[in-house]
Fold this sequence. Notes:
Distance between the termini: 34 Å
Low-confidence stretches: none
Largest sheet: 8 strands, mixed
Helix content: 25-40%
Structural class: alpha+beta
Shape: globular
Strand content: 25-35%
Amino acid sequence: MRTQVAIIGAGPAGLLLGQLLQVAGIETVILERRSADYVLGRIRAGVLEQGTVDLIARAGCDARLRQEGLPHAGVNLCFDGKRHRIDLAALTAGKEVVVYGQTEVTRDLMEARAAADARTVYEATGVHLEGFERARPVVHFRKGGIAQTLECDFIAGCDGFYGVSRQSVPEGALETFERVYPFGWLGLLADVPPANEELIYVNHEDGFALCSMRSPTRSRYYLQCDADEKVENWSDQRFWDELRRRLDPEAAAALVTGPALEKSIAPLRSFVAEPLRFGRLFLAGDVAHIVPPTGAKGLNLAASDVHYLSEALIEYYGEGSSAGIDAYSARALARVWKAERFSWWMTSLLHRFPENGRFGHRIQLAELEYLVSSDAAAASLAENYVGLPF
Length: 390
Protein backbone atom coordinates (compact mmCIF):
# COMPACT_ATOMS: atom_id res chain seq x y z
CA MET A 1 0.00 0.00 0.00
CA ARG A 2 0.97 3.62 -0.51
CA THR A 3 -0.45 6.73 1.14
CA GLN A 4 0.61 10.26 2.00
CA VAL A 5 0.19 10.11 5.80
CA ALA A 6 0.13 6.89 7.81
CA ILE A 7 -1.69 7.40 11.10
CA ILE A 8 -1.05 4.92 13.91
CA GLY A 9 -4.06 4.68 16.21
CA ALA A 10 -7.81 5.13 15.63
CA GLY A 11 -8.64 6.97 18.82
CA PRO A 12 -9.97 10.53 18.71
CA ALA A 13 -6.54 12.03 17.89
CA GLY A 14 -5.90 9.76 14.92
CA LEU A 15 -9.44 9.94 13.60
CA LEU A 16 -9.63 13.73 13.94
CA LEU A 17 -6.29 14.17 12.19
CA GLY A 18 -7.41 11.82 9.44
CA GLN A 19 -10.66 13.72 8.91
CA LEU A 20 -9.02 17.16 8.83
CA LEU A 21 -6.51 15.91 6.26
CA GLN A 22 -9.29 14.20 4.29
CA VAL A 23 -11.19 17.49 4.07
CA ALA A 24 -7.97 19.09 2.75
CA GLY A 25 -7.58 16.41 0.08
CA ILE A 26 -4.66 14.62 1.75
CA GLU A 27 -4.73 10.82 1.65
CA THR A 28 -4.34 8.85 4.89
CA VAL A 29 -4.46 5.27 6.10
CA ILE A 30 -5.12 4.61 9.78
CA LEU A 31 -3.77 1.46 11.47
CA GLU A 32 -5.39 0.38 14.75
CA ARG A 33 -4.39 -2.70 16.74
CA ARG A 34 -7.83 -3.10 18.33
CA SER A 35 -11.23 -3.76 16.77
CA ALA A 36 -13.63 -0.93 15.98
CA ASP A 37 -16.03 -2.21 18.65
CA TYR A 38 -13.26 -2.15 21.27
CA VAL A 39 -12.34 1.42 20.38
CA LEU A 40 -15.98 2.50 20.68
CA GLY A 41 -16.35 0.68 23.99
CA ARG A 42 -13.71 2.72 25.81
CA ILE A 43 -15.14 5.00 28.52
CA ARG A 44 -13.28 8.29 28.50
CA ALA A 45 -13.60 12.03 29.04
CA GLY A 46 -16.61 14.09 28.11
CA VAL A 47 -15.79 17.81 28.54
CA LEU A 48 -14.78 19.59 25.33
CA GLU A 49 -13.07 22.96 25.22
CA GLN A 50 -14.32 25.65 22.87
CA GLY A 51 -11.31 25.10 20.59
CA THR A 52 -11.95 21.35 20.38
CA VAL A 53 -15.58 21.95 19.41
CA ASP A 54 -14.45 24.38 16.71
CA LEU A 55 -11.90 21.87 15.41
CA ILE A 56 -14.52 19.11 15.18
CA ALA A 57 -16.68 21.57 13.24
CA ARG A 58 -13.79 22.21 10.83
CA ALA A 59 -13.65 18.46 10.27
CA GLY A 60 -17.36 18.51 9.36
CA CYS A 61 -18.29 16.21 12.26
CA ASP A 62 -20.21 18.47 14.63
CA ALA A 63 -23.85 17.89 13.63
CA ARG A 64 -24.71 15.49 16.44
CA LEU A 65 -22.45 17.34 18.89
CA ARG A 66 -24.43 20.55 18.28
CA GLN A 67 -27.71 18.68 18.72
CA GLU A 68 -26.91 16.48 21.70
CA GLY A 69 -23.96 18.17 23.45
CA LEU A 70 -24.62 19.98 26.72
CA PRO A 71 -23.12 23.51 26.77
CA HIS A 72 -21.91 24.55 30.21
CA ALA A 73 -21.32 28.22 30.97
CA GLY A 74 -20.17 27.53 34.53
CA VAL A 75 -18.45 25.07 36.85
CA ASN A 76 -18.83 24.52 40.60
CA LEU A 77 -16.29 24.23 43.41
CA CYS A 78 -17.45 22.65 46.66
CA PHE A 79 -15.50 22.89 49.91
CA ASP A 80 -16.34 23.19 53.61
CA GLY A 81 -19.78 21.82 52.73
CA LYS A 82 -20.64 24.81 50.52
CA ARG A 83 -20.85 25.09 46.74
CA HIS A 84 -19.61 28.06 44.70
CA ARG A 85 -20.23 28.62 40.99
CA ILE A 86 -17.53 29.98 38.66
CA ASP A 87 -19.21 31.79 35.75
CA LEU A 88 -17.02 30.68 32.86
CA ALA A 89 -18.86 32.63 30.18
CA ALA A 90 -18.87 35.92 32.10
CA LEU A 91 -15.15 35.62 32.84
CA THR A 92 -14.05 34.64 29.31
CA ALA A 93 -16.13 36.86 27.01
CA GLY A 94 -18.77 34.20 26.38
CA LYS A 95 -16.70 31.03 26.05
CA GLU A 96 -18.14 27.73 27.28
CA VAL A 97 -17.33 24.03 27.43
CA VAL A 98 -19.55 21.31 25.98
CA VAL A 99 -20.23 17.95 27.63
CA TYR A 100 -20.18 15.32 24.88
CA GLY A 101 -18.65 11.91 25.52
CA GLN A 102 -15.41 10.84 23.89
CA THR A 103 -17.21 7.70 22.70
CA GLU A 104 -19.63 9.90 20.76
CA VAL A 105 -16.81 11.99 19.28
CA THR A 106 -15.12 8.76 18.17
CA ARG A 107 -18.35 7.42 16.67
CA ASP A 108 -18.94 10.62 14.68
CA LEU A 109 -15.40 10.60 13.32
CA MET A 110 -15.58 6.90 12.43
CA GLU A 111 -18.80 7.43 10.51
CA ALA A 112 -17.38 10.42 8.63
CA ARG A 113 -14.30 8.41 7.68
CA ALA A 114 -16.43 5.52 6.43
CA ALA A 115 -18.62 7.92 4.43
CA ALA A 116 -15.50 9.34 2.77
CA ASP A 117 -14.32 5.80 1.94
CA ALA A 118 -11.02 6.53 3.72
CA ARG A 119 -9.19 3.42 4.79
CA THR A 120 -8.85 2.29 8.40
CA VAL A 121 -7.25 -1.09 9.12
CA TYR A 122 -8.50 -2.45 12.44
CA GLU A 123 -6.79 -5.35 14.25
CA ALA A 124 -3.48 -4.48 12.62
CA THR A 125 -0.91 -6.39 14.66
CA GLY A 126 2.88 -6.34 14.85
CA VAL A 127 3.13 -2.72 13.71
CA HIS A 128 6.73 -1.72 13.06
CA LEU A 129 7.88 1.74 11.94
CA GLU A 130 10.90 2.00 9.70
CA GLY A 131 12.83 4.66 7.82
CA PHE A 132 11.16 7.73 9.32
CA GLU A 133 14.53 9.45 9.47
CA ARG A 134 14.59 9.24 5.64
CA ALA A 135 12.34 10.59 2.87
CA ARG A 136 10.19 7.45 2.49
CA PRO A 137 9.03 5.90 5.77
CA VAL A 138 7.53 2.42 5.80
CA VAL A 139 5.09 0.83 8.25
CA HIS A 140 5.03 -2.97 8.49
CA PHE A 141 2.06 -4.76 10.04
CA ARG A 142 0.01 -7.95 9.89
CA LYS A 143 -3.69 -8.21 9.13
CA GLY A 144 -5.38 -11.58 9.45
CA GLY A 145 -1.97 -13.19 9.76
CA ILE A 146 -0.76 -11.74 6.44
CA ALA A 147 2.29 -9.45 6.45
CA GLN A 148 1.69 -6.11 4.75
CA THR A 149 3.68 -2.94 4.09
CA LEU A 150 2.45 0.66 3.99
CA GLU A 151 4.71 3.22 2.31
CA CYS A 152 4.10 6.87 3.12
CA ASP A 153 5.50 10.40 3.26
CA PHE A 154 4.90 10.91 7.00
CA ILE A 155 3.88 8.89 10.05
CA ALA A 156 1.61 10.37 12.73
CA GLY A 157 1.88 8.42 15.99
CA CYS A 158 -1.51 8.77 17.71
CA ASP A 159 -1.56 5.36 19.40
CA GLY A 160 -1.71 6.25 23.07
CA PHE A 161 0.60 6.00 26.05
CA TYR A 162 1.49 2.33 25.50
CA GLY A 163 1.60 2.51 21.69
CA VAL A 164 4.44 1.57 19.38
CA SER A 165 5.13 5.08 18.05
CA ARG A 166 6.99 6.49 21.05
CA GLN A 167 8.72 3.14 21.56
CA SER A 168 10.09 3.41 18.00
CA VAL A 169 12.04 6.58 18.75
CA PRO A 170 15.81 5.90 18.87
CA GLU A 171 17.25 5.52 22.35
CA GLY A 172 18.55 8.81 23.70
CA ALA A 173 16.51 10.96 21.31
CA LEU A 174 13.60 11.40 23.71
CA GLU A 175 13.41 13.13 27.10
CA THR A 176 10.52 12.31 29.42
CA PHE A 177 9.09 14.07 32.48
CA GLU A 178 6.72 12.30 34.87
CA ARG A 179 4.86 12.70 38.15
CA VAL A 180 2.87 9.76 39.53
CA TYR A 181 0.22 10.74 42.09
CA PRO A 182 -0.33 8.72 45.28
CA PHE A 183 -4.04 8.09 44.62
CA GLY A 184 -6.50 7.12 41.91
CA TRP A 185 -10.03 7.90 40.78
CA LEU A 186 -12.79 5.38 41.40
CA GLY A 187 -15.34 6.07 38.68
CA LEU A 188 -18.94 4.94 38.33
CA LEU A 189 -21.19 5.34 35.28
CA ALA A 190 -24.95 5.01 35.75
CA ASP A 191 -28.15 5.74 33.87
CA VAL A 192 -29.39 8.32 36.36
CA PRO A 193 -29.95 12.09 35.96
CA PRO A 194 -27.03 14.27 37.08
CA ALA A 195 -26.96 15.63 40.60
CA ASN A 196 -26.48 19.12 39.13
CA GLU A 197 -26.77 20.66 35.68
CA GLU A 198 -23.07 21.64 35.76
CA LEU A 199 -19.98 19.81 37.02
CA ILE A 200 -19.18 19.89 40.74
CA TYR A 201 -15.53 19.57 41.86
CA VAL A 202 -15.31 18.70 45.55
CA ASN A 203 -12.50 19.24 48.06
CA HIS A 204 -13.41 17.19 51.14
CA GLU A 205 -11.32 16.32 54.17
CA ASP A 206 -11.59 12.63 53.19
CA GLY A 207 -10.75 13.16 49.53
CA PHE A 208 -11.76 14.59 46.19
CA ALA A 209 -15.08 13.90 44.43
CA LEU A 210 -16.50 14.90 41.06
CA CYS A 211 -20.07 14.98 39.77
CA SER A 212 -20.12 14.88 35.98
CA MET A 213 -22.43 13.59 33.26
CA ARG A 214 -22.61 12.24 29.73
CA SER A 215 -26.21 13.25 28.99
CA PRO A 216 -29.35 14.39 30.85
CA THR A 217 -29.98 10.73 31.75
CA ARG A 218 -26.45 9.33 32.16
CA SER A 219 -24.10 10.44 34.95
CA ARG A 220 -20.42 9.88 35.67
CA TYR A 221 -19.15 10.20 39.25
CA TYR A 222 -15.69 9.90 40.77
CA LEU A 223 -14.14 9.48 44.21
CA GLN A 224 -10.50 9.84 45.21
CA CYS A 225 -9.23 6.49 46.46
CA ASP A 226 -5.95 4.87 47.43
CA ALA A 227 -3.67 4.00 44.53
CA ASP A 228 -3.81 0.30 45.42
CA GLU A 229 -7.58 0.18 46.02
CA LYS A 230 -9.57 -2.64 44.36
CA VAL A 231 -12.85 -2.10 42.51
CA GLU A 232 -14.34 -5.24 44.06
CA ASN A 233 -14.11 -3.59 47.48
CA TRP A 234 -16.68 -1.03 46.39
CA SER A 235 -20.29 -2.10 46.12
CA ASP A 236 -22.63 0.33 44.39
CA GLN A 237 -24.18 1.18 47.73
CA ARG A 238 -20.81 1.94 49.34
CA PHE A 239 -19.91 4.23 46.43
CA TRP A 240 -23.19 6.17 46.57
CA ASP A 241 -23.01 6.54 50.36
CA GLU A 242 -19.45 7.89 50.22
CA LEU A 243 -20.22 10.26 47.35
CA ARG A 244 -23.26 11.65 49.14
CA ARG A 245 -21.17 12.19 52.30
CA ARG A 246 -18.62 14.32 50.42
CA LEU A 247 -21.18 16.57 48.66
CA ASP A 248 -22.84 19.74 49.88
CA PRO A 249 -26.33 19.20 51.35
CA GLU A 250 -28.21 20.42 48.25
CA ALA A 251 -26.28 18.18 45.84
CA ALA A 252 -26.49 15.24 48.26
CA ALA A 253 -30.27 15.60 48.41
CA ALA A 254 -30.50 15.79 44.60
CA LEU A 255 -28.31 12.71 44.02
CA VAL A 256 -30.20 9.92 42.26
CA THR A 257 -28.64 6.49 42.60
CA GLY A 258 -28.85 3.39 40.43
CA PRO A 259 -26.95 0.30 39.33
CA ALA A 260 -23.47 0.87 37.87
CA LEU A 261 -23.09 0.36 34.14
CA GLU A 262 -19.31 0.51 34.58
CA LYS A 263 -16.99 0.90 37.54
CA SER A 264 -13.23 1.26 37.35
CA ILE A 265 -10.18 2.78 39.02
CA ALA A 266 -7.84 5.05 37.04
CA PRO A 267 -4.35 5.93 38.29
CA LEU A 268 -3.28 9.56 38.00
CA ARG A 269 -0.05 10.76 36.42
CA SER A 270 1.45 13.74 34.65
CA PHE A 271 3.75 12.82 31.75
CA VAL A 272 5.41 14.65 28.86
CA ALA A 273 7.79 13.33 26.19
CA GLU A 274 9.73 15.72 24.04
CA PRO A 275 10.42 16.54 21.29
CA LEU A 276 7.35 15.52 19.28
CA ARG A 277 9.08 15.17 15.92
CA PHE A 278 11.70 12.69 14.74
CA GLY A 279 12.37 13.14 11.04
CA ARG A 280 9.09 12.19 9.40
CA LEU A 281 7.53 10.72 12.54
CA PHE A 282 5.30 12.95 14.68
CA LEU A 283 3.82 12.19 18.11
CA ALA A 284 0.37 13.50 19.02
CA GLY A 285 -2.05 12.91 21.89
CA ASP A 286 -1.58 10.46 24.77
CA VAL A 287 1.48 8.91 23.15
CA ALA A 288 3.26 12.19 23.93
CA HIS A 289 1.63 13.39 27.14
CA ILE A 290 -0.73 12.40 29.93
CA VAL A 291 -2.53 14.73 32.34
CA PRO A 292 -4.48 13.88 35.47
CA PRO A 293 -8.17 14.17 34.53
CA THR A 294 -8.93 16.86 37.11
CA GLY A 295 -8.78 19.71 34.59
CA ALA A 296 -10.54 17.82 31.75
CA LYS A 297 -7.56 18.35 29.43
CA GLY A 298 -6.69 14.89 28.07
CA LEU A 299 -8.85 14.74 24.93
CA ASN A 300 -8.58 18.49 24.47
CA LEU A 301 -4.80 18.39 24.53
CA ALA A 302 -4.83 15.66 21.88
CA ALA A 303 -7.05 17.91 19.74
CA SER A 304 -4.56 20.75 20.26
CA ASP A 305 -1.72 18.60 18.89
CA VAL A 306 -3.89 17.61 15.95
CA HIS A 307 -4.61 21.27 15.22
CA TYR A 308 -0.90 22.09 14.92
CA LEU A 309 0.00 18.91 13.04
CA SER A 310 -2.86 19.13 10.55
CA GLU A 311 -2.00 22.77 9.82
CA ALA A 312 1.64 21.79 9.25
CA LEU A 313 0.81 18.94 6.86
CA ILE A 314 -1.78 20.96 4.95
CA GLU A 315 0.82 23.72 4.51
CA TYR A 316 3.39 21.18 3.31
CA TYR A 317 1.14 19.61 0.68
CA GLY A 318 -0.61 22.85 -0.30
CA GLU A 319 2.33 25.25 -0.42
CA GLY A 320 5.39 23.02 -0.46
CA SER A 321 6.59 24.64 2.77
CA SER A 322 8.10 22.68 5.66
CA ALA A 323 7.91 25.65 8.07
CA GLY A 324 4.92 24.26 9.95
CA ILE A 325 6.45 20.80 10.17
CA ASP A 326 9.67 22.25 11.54
CA ALA A 327 7.77 24.27 14.14
CA TYR A 328 5.27 21.57 15.14
CA SER A 329 7.03 20.21 18.20
CA ALA A 330 7.80 23.59 19.77
CA ARG A 331 4.32 25.00 19.09
CA ALA A 332 2.51 21.95 20.43
CA LEU A 333 4.72 21.59 23.51
CA ALA A 334 4.24 25.23 24.50
CA ARG A 335 0.52 24.55 24.89
CA VAL A 336 1.07 21.07 26.35
CA TRP A 337 3.07 22.44 29.28
CA LYS A 338 0.44 25.09 30.04
CA ALA A 339 -2.23 22.39 30.17
CA GLU A 340 0.04 20.19 32.29
CA ARG A 341 0.47 23.10 34.72
CA PHE A 342 -3.28 23.69 34.98
CA SER A 343 -4.08 19.99 35.45
CA TRP A 344 -1.37 19.67 38.12
CA TRP A 345 -2.69 22.80 39.86
CA MET A 346 -6.31 21.57 39.87
CA THR A 347 -5.18 18.18 41.15
CA SER A 348 -3.08 19.77 43.89
CA LEU A 349 -5.92 22.09 44.88
CA LEU A 350 -8.67 19.49 45.21
CA HIS A 351 -7.13 16.20 46.39
CA ARG A 352 -5.89 15.08 49.77
CA PHE A 353 -2.15 14.39 49.74
CA PRO A 354 -1.25 12.25 52.79
CA GLU A 355 2.17 13.87 53.13
CA ASN A 356 0.70 17.41 53.31
CA GLY A 357 -1.32 16.79 56.47
CA ARG A 358 -3.69 19.29 58.10
CA PHE A 359 -1.51 22.26 57.12
CA GLY A 360 -1.78 21.35 53.44
CA HIS A 361 -5.55 21.05 53.70
CA ARG A 362 -5.82 24.51 55.27
CA ILE A 363 -3.71 25.95 52.45
CA GLN A 364 -6.09 24.37 49.93
CA LEU A 365 -9.09 25.90 51.68
CA ALA A 366 -7.42 29.32 51.76
CA GLU A 367 -6.74 29.14 48.03
CA LEU A 368 -10.29 27.99 47.29
CA GLU A 369 -11.66 30.88 49.35
CA TYR A 370 -9.47 33.23 47.34
CA LEU A 371 -10.67 31.72 44.05
CA VAL A 372 -14.34 32.24 44.80
CA SER A 373 -13.88 35.76 46.24
CA SER A 374 -11.52 37.22 43.61
CA ASP A 375 -12.62 37.93 40.03
CA ALA A 376 -8.98 37.92 38.94
CA ALA A 377 -8.31 34.47 40.42
CA ALA A 378 -11.59 33.09 39.08
CA ALA A 379 -10.82 34.50 35.63
CA SER A 380 -7.52 32.63 35.54
CA LEU A 381 -9.27 29.36 36.34
CA ALA A 382 -12.01 30.06 33.78
CA GLU A 383 -9.58 31.00 31.01
CA ASN A 384 -7.71 27.73 31.42
CA TYR A 385 -10.82 25.60 31.91
CA VAL A 386 -12.51 26.71 28.67
CA GLY A 387 -9.18 26.28 26.91
CA LEU A 388 -6.28 28.54 26.01
CA PRO A 389 -6.21 29.63 22.35
CA PHE A 390 -4.35 27.47 19.83
